[in-house]
Please model this.
Amino acid sequence: MFARALAGVTFCLLAGCATVPNGDPRDPYESFNRAMFSFNEGLDDVIGEPVATAYKAVLPYEVRIRVTNFFANIQDVMIAVNNLLQGKPNQAADDFARVLVNSSFGLAGLHDIASDAGLEKHNEDFGQTFAVWGMDGGPYFVWPFFGSKNVRDTFGLALDLTVAPVLAIDPASTRYWMTGLYLVNERADLLDATTALDDAALDKYVARRDIYFQRRRDLIYDGNPPRAPRQRPPGREPRSNADPSPTMTRSDALRAGPDPGSPRAARAQTGTFAPRRPSNYDAVLAAPRGKL
Amino acid sequence: MTRSMVRLASILVAGCLALFAGRALAAAITPPDALVKTVTLEVLDIVSADQEIQAGNVQKVIGLVEAKVLPHFSFESMTALAMGVNWRKATAEQKTRLAQSFKILLVRTYASAITSYRDERFEFLPLRAKPNDTDVTVKVRVHKPGRQSVAIDYDMERTASGWKCYNVYVAGVSLVLNYRTEFASEVRRNGIDGLIDALETKNQKLEAAAK
Model:
């Protein structure tokens, strides 16, 4: 299956894969990705979900939260490094402090004391670091096992895995156990969420893809992505009659640039970290609308 | 007293009355951040005290959401946002049916989420808005041990009947805007009636599965 997938990618890349009409411009290999998506879904139905459900049924919440805390503590090390690489020394200092506190007083990370003490947990990875450095997202892929990743996040993931502390554990048997436990615990934590999302979607593939793009953008901007000025919900007339402004929403803004997740251009202009604005941002701002 | 003076006086009195009425009305509308906080805490209290809901009684959860939460949502605005440009092409009847089926879908799929809250601590961030704003974002953070806090942002608009939520972001993902692509492609393929059919079929399936 994996070989077939690789062959599929190669073929698509060489042949300029048939694009789906009216598809998302960020997803040029939609037909390949859909095939991979159903492969992953099938795999999850057979292995991921049943194992995670059993895990959740067997282990009480108090135990599962210790597992979560333990791995979260290990991950805080690389989160700190990534915060440093993104030029956020204060967050990085917090992350290192978290590791120190949780590893010692938190009994090897089993208890997240640092959060109780007000040291906030962050979410960083190399994919986000590359975005902050100005790398474009590139086309979207659904990889077997790894799921939704654009090219930038694919490189990010490769680096994340290379330096992951858990994957450096010797002997190999412990490493496999730990990795397995981590994956099952993560999947178990997402059981409710994935059920709700799958129930809610008309087209699971599209829903997951759009969630991926929105979520990654939010993470890159640490929870404060630039939002286009909100429109009144459409269908209501704007206050001014002379209002030719394009109505923009956040998702439109997302599509406005080749990759709005890359703040390099804006930073080059202003000297500070500032979001790149959608091209018609100024037009929207200039429009005579009272609520802006 | 001349006629014009009487008229002037009555206009003044009417003006004053209108002003006071306006004040009274404004005072009666709960500010958006207070509204979110009150409703959230009230619902959480009910959930934490109700064994049946914790055990996963979906019907009871939906009943609770319908009674306490839904009155503060504007499903018309929400559906309009998810439809984008296609909203203007819909007839009044289509709009009503779209909003109705979208509402059922969202309630059915997300209502059960409130039963999964456990150790979470809710933090209500101060509202950043001017007093005369009619469109604001209310920010809530949900803190959970071992995980990054989850942001829940409510976009709210001021209406005659109080502040109404028309968009919800969870961890930066809009539960409404996320339907844009799906709705648009359904409309492109089968028209607005096709989308209504798809939503209604989906709801029937979910209902059948719940039984």
Observations:
- Residues 60-220 of chain A form one domain.
